[in-house]
Amino acid sequence: MANFITSLTNRIRGFLLTGENEVPALWWDMIDQIQNLRDAYHSQTDSQLFDEWHSLRYRVQSGESLTNLLPEAFAIVSEQMQRHLGLTPYPVQYLGAFAMHDGAIAEMQTGEGKTLTAALTLCLNALPEAGIHIATANDYLAERDAAWLSPVYHSLGMTVGVITSNSSSAERRDAYDCDITYGTAREFGFDYLRDLLSIPGQKMSINTRRQQLFGRQNDKTAKLLVNPRAPYMVIIDEADSILIDEARTPLIIGQQDSREERQMKSVCQWGAAHASRLTENDHYTDHGPQKGMELTEAGRRLVREMLMQEAAPSSLDTGTAYLASERALRVQNYFHNGREYVVRDGKVSIVDEFTGRIAEGRMWQNGIHQAIEAKEGLEITTPTKVGAQTTVQELFARYPRMAGMTGTAESAASELKKVFSTPVISIPTNRPSRRELHPEQIFLTAEEKWNAIVQETTDMHRQGRPVLIGTRSVNLSNELSALLLQAGLEHEVLHALNHENEAAIIKEAGQPGRITVATNMAGRGTDILLGEGVSERGGLHVICSEFHESARIDRQLTGRAARQGDPGSARVFLSLEDDILKNGLIPEDFSEFVAKYKAGNLDQKSLLRAFYQAQRRIEKRHEQQRIELVKRIQERREMLHKMGQHANLDAL
Predict the structure, then answer these.
(1) Is the distance from CB of 215 to CB of 499 less than 8 angstroms?
(2) Residue 436: enclosing H or E segment and its boundaries?
(3) How far is CA 387 from CA 202, 390, 529, 648, in A?
(4) Considering just the CA atoms, what is the radius of gyration of the chain in Å?
């Protein structure tokens, strides 16, 4: 045991909550203490363990600290996990639970048991009966984890609730009343905003509203709220994805804007019909996906000419026509069916860029959603205005205690510490990693790259090894699927249009010779277990078909191989036609880069360096966008505060 502790101490030296240079010796002492206590609890009956747990509740109510009770609590929970799940936490899982209890983000590799680790922290921190939330990556994981762990929670006399996008108000209220509540960050955020909107007198002062929302509601107000309890603690799964990747977009609840409803349909349809007549540089300037398009003088002149045609709506004035044209051009250039969105049942559904799933209930603001509907020839929905909004940063700042877990947070540790005051602690793996990372392969064209991917998949399939191929979009998944079929390779495709089959597809992805094509694997949360004989053949082989705009997403994909000491391998395939180069390098640098490659003046190392440089530039750009969002929200907050308005509500 001493050698084990020394090894772990050396591996995570420097990642401390206190900022010191060594992991507190108390952590190692507690692991031994927990295991000894669990041995003692092993002989007790379920009734005796139940009484032991409730004695801990009494001690908390008497003022004893949770940290002081941690060894006993973890030992009781561990024993119940063994009895009801057949699993006992590994020492490294205790380390992850220690880190989260102390308010850190535990970086635990894929397959290291984050779900079980979180349950230890959840049970301990549910003892004060203040209600603890765990924010998962999606509804499926919330329901799955709550159901799997409910026998453990119930054996301790604790209640557990689940909130999904389909939950009714009554179901949400019941879930928030539980000791432990599972849900997505998005649903927790929207419920907070819904409660803000449901309080009578939206223009009440911020002080009065704060009293109502944070523990001093009167009975009448409390009955109107979905969650009348004051926020206490939240644990965030896939913490880097939620706190970093998704933090560029505020959470917004829209309200129907009847003033625009009558005009929006004809305006969007007119813009979509005429956008193709406008050409870049001649009629408009492209300022990028965030800032959009700007008409030139020639472009405005052409729009005015089109307005004079009989097909133009009579209510369409010149200024609105300019805006409609710029919006239609932005949609035409930066919003693609099968990438940013899909059409399901005659409706436009947003695809989450980080998880590849449908972002249920979300709509683009400022007429973008309606412009896409017009482009696709669909019925135009009623436009919305901002009713209430918050940011991820604001949402989780409401909780006095916050912690998280993920497989890829170390590279974002600086931003997480700066923005959320949350340190990252890297937890060692239970077994040494056997993942083999093959050298990257780079091609001139995308066609050459995809052919090489099919060839490598064929080679692995002949060896009887399962293959997981990650793509950036629904369209690319479908295109690759067609190539695999041409090569005679049977396979499964997982993306936004069939995500309801996700668990079944992933469950079989480790079987011999199985081929799975999937959009971004971030937050999938389901381990790929190797089938019989797969380990002897080399394990799961993962193919990353191009770089994502976040390096952490690529790490999450390749991390699917070689979980829990299994064998496995991964390779990245790139081409000079990949979006990462076009978006990450300025046009002049990109053109020069391609010219040098064609002339044979770039070696493999220089090629790869350019891809990583482009990726880092995009990551930096996204970080700046998050900083600017927080700055804008803060400025708005201060302005509304001076006006006596609530910072999260639309000032009317």
Answers:
(1) no
(2) strand 434-437
(3) 11, 11, 45, 9
(4) 27
* Measured distance CA(290)–CA(477) in Å, rounded: 26
Q: Calculate ∠ Cα 491-495-501, nearest 5°.
A: 75
CA distance 143 to 182: 7
- Which helix (H) or strand (E) segment holds residue 589: the answer is helix 587-598
Of 603, 372, 408, 628, the C-alpha closest to 521 is 408
pLDDT digits (tens, 9 = 90+) for 491-540: 999 876 766 677 788 888 999 999 999 987 544 667 789 999 999 999 99
Q: How far apart are CA 493 and CA 174, in angstroms?
A: 37
The residue type found at 320 is T
Q: Report d(CA 406, CA 246) in Å as an integer.
A: 14
Q: How far is CA 214 from CA 173, 174, 178, 223, 400, in A?
A: 16, 19, 18, 14, 11
State the burial class of residue 596 (Cβ atoms within 10 Å of its Cβ: 0-12, 13-18, 19+). Answer: middle
- Reported pTM: 0.81
Which residues lie below 8 Å from residue 474, measured CB to CB, with a gap of 6+?
338, 339, 342, 351, 356, 495, 496, 497, 519
- Distance of alpha carbon 281 from alpha carbon 495, whole angstroms: 36
